[in-house]
Design brief:
Two copies of one chain form a homodimer.
Chain A: H1 3-27, E1 32-37, E2 42-51, E3 55-68, H2 71-75, E4 83-95, E5 102-112, E6 115-125, H3 131-146, H4 153-163, E7 165-166, E8 171-172, E9 177-183, H5 187-199, H6 201-212, H7 219-238, H8 241-248, H9 253-256, E10 263-265, H10 277-284
Helix pairs in contact in A: 1-5, 1-6
């Protein structure tokens, strides 16, 4: 293994630790840890799960593995050849309190033949949120991007809006964030950017969590959260490339599906009451420029 | 419209009524009805929803519509040409009591160019069930098939086991039933068989429902039901051809996804306790011959 690869793996493991320590300090919950081997090739991962507390369910996963791509998957990504190596950190946090948004973050590094690239992103899926929190979230992401010549906030923000879109609902999954893939130019600069995304996760999310974690919520607030979590499931199982990649490559199913919510509901043809806080969310998730607005 | 088609449509509507009346008598719940138009072509449907009672959620849908197939869908079904006509009844019932199984039934008639065919099936997804109930369920299906020269129980049973299989879990969705498609020979005989499936639904399912509807259940029983419902969601969103056909043809989303459970949970890496009733289900859903065993 070359030193770049080893360096990325160690850094990604450190980012997993950094995030898990942040979450432990935040809620005093301890994670359950599973070390697993990839049974379709070499390598494996470390899955950490927080549950049954202020964090109703969260999975923070590190993996580093190599194997062979199926023809179907091979066709849909860049590069040539069957062999691949992939390492990454991915997480989804489903808080108990509906006033705290669900969040997803992922950073990854992939090699195929003589090609290698970074990808990843952060996006926020709120139920009840104030506009200034969304603005602040986007501003923090823009600040990170602005520090790195390889990163363009507006481009990555648009990519995120396009990607996290639930076509069959004609709805965005949430209020977006940044999403990037196939960053293959200038290894060092890109790695620095990806590290910054990973190490800044706590600073981006934990203040929002703290701000709302003691806010009282009603049964109706909770019901709305469970209902909206249904959209998360729909997106992840129908469209998410990471999930489908995992299913297609016979990945470790519990780690792939750790992103699914703890409790979810579907209600036929449900519509929010006019001018309610619930209806407001449907307006907030329409993609827009959160920086200059 | 030719008289065959009109006859099928009227019969399918009558089957929807027959089933809905059976369910109303069973639980004294009233359905909520939605008449809708297919906005990508002609026709539409009648969706009926039972909820918030002994039937926690059920959708019984009739539709009759025509339009154009996308290239992707067109490639995956028999026949040639873009134009299609489809009519059918489909239902999924999610009972509140975990001792009552979830059930799915579907009958449909499709035309494409000069080809036309029937398809459909019934399959049972229990949480806690006695072997004799499964045997009885399969015997009733075999009795129906045995009356019709176009139907072969063993062939349709195998087709069902193959189809309702959750590949990424290496698990069957439930205890199977019958599944058939592309029945295009001998219109009258096939229509008679399909009618028999539809009109016999109540006789197949309602006795099981009645038998267990007053059985007391614990929080753990309910939790197990919610957990297993997660598998139902995974199957429907990742594999179900009807669902994917609906999403691809921009069908009416609320009617397509009415099959999704009212309340569902995912728990990381959950395993049943050895020799528990929950573990027993995992043995029962391994496909086997329920008739001669």
């Amino acid at each position: 293994m070359n030193s770049n690869k080893q360096n990325i793996i160690e850094t990604f493991k450190d980012i997993q630790n950094h995030i898990c320590n942040g979450l432990k300090d935040l809620t005093n919950q301890n994670f359950e840890e599973d070390k697993w081997k990839y049974n379709q090739g070499e390598g494996g991962g470390i899955t950490r799960i927080f549950s049954d507390g202020p964090i109703e369910k969260a999975g923070v996963n590190f993996s580093s593995l190599s194997g062979n791509l199926s023809e179907k998957i091979g066709k849909n990504i860049i590069g040539k050849g069957k062999k691949f190596f992939a390492t990454g950190v991915s997480l989804v946090i489903h808080p108990d309190n509906p006033f705290i948004p669900t969040i997803h973050m992922n950073i990854r590094y992939i090699e195929r033949n003589n090609k290698c690239w970074f990808g990843g992103g952060i996006d926020l899926t709120p139920f009840y949120i104030e506009d200034h929190d969304i603005k602040n979230f986007h501003k923090k992401l823009k600040n990170i991007c602005d520090k790195h010549p390889v990163a363009n906030y507006y481009e990555f923000k648009k990519h995120c809006d396009d990607y996290f879109f639930i076509k069959h609902r004609n709805e965005a999954r949430g209020v977006g964030g940044i999403f990037f893939d196939y960053l293959e130019k200038n290894f060092d600069q890109t790695f620095n950017f990806v590290k910054d995304v990973g190490y800044n996760f706590n600073d981006i999310y934990i203040p929002i969590f703290k701000n709302y974690k003691d806010k009282k919520f009603s049964t109706n607030n909770k019901k709305f959260q469970l209902y909206r979590r249904g959209r998360y499931v729909e997106f992840n199982l129908v469209y998410d490339r990471g999930t489908l990649f995992g299913l297609e490559t016979n990945g470790r199913i519990e780690s792939i599906l750790m992103s699914l919510p703890p409790l979810t509901s579907w209600k036929y043809n449900w519509k929010p009451i006019q001018n309610s806080k619930e209806e407001n969310l449907y307006k907030q998730i329409i993609p827009r420029d959160w920086i200059s607005s």
